[in-house]
Amino acid sequence: MNSIEVRVIDCHICRETERGYKYLLLKRSSNQIYPNIWQCVTGKIKLNESAHKAAIRELKEETGLSPINFWTLDHVNYFYESKKNRMNLIPVFGAEVDSSLIKLSLEHTEYKWCTIDEGIKLTLWNKQKEGLKIFHKMLTYEEQKSKFLKL
């Protein structure tokens, strides 16, 4: 193995409704890597930028939203990138927003506010599915963990 890198983030977005939490999924544009898949907010960490600051910046760039609550999750996404022979470790965050109005960037063509079950079905990558499940569990059943992980 040549390298292990932390260069990108995942950020799951929720908003509370009368029927419980809804989770935001974004559909990637056809001209992007991994075209037309549904996913959470993702993005690269800039030089000298912390992972959590990158997640907040990417949230704003990809959706126009800012978090009212923000957490680091006790989950790390990872994948092997064969072209570069490297492992990628991906810090995972959760953000609560108070608006359902999205301003999509050019990276995405659609968005959906989903129940947890809909979100899991739409998301392609298993590690992003796991991150979404962990975020939902923290919000709905693990109040103490939510307090510890809040940034």
Strands, helices and their partners?
Layout lengths: L2 E3 L2 E10 L2 E9 L9 E2 L1 E4 L6 H13 L5 E13 L4 E11 L11 E7 L1 H7 L3 H16 L1 H7 L2
Helix pairs in contact: 2-3
List the defining traits of the structure above:
39% strand; Nucleoside Triphosphate Pyrophosphohydrolase; 8 strands; 151 residues; alpha+beta
Structural write-up:
With 151 residues, the chain is an alpha+beta fold. It has a single domain (3-149), classed as Nucleoside Triphosphate Pyrophosphohydrolase, CATH 3.90.79.10. The chain has four helices and eight strands, in the order E-E-E-E-E-H-E-E-E-H-H-H. Strands 1, 2, 3, 4, 5, 6, 7 and 8 form an eight-stranded mixed sheet that branches. Helix 2 packs antiparallel against helix 3 (126-141). The longest helix is centred in the C-terminal third of the chain and has 16 residues, at 126-141. It is globular. The mean pLDDT is 93.
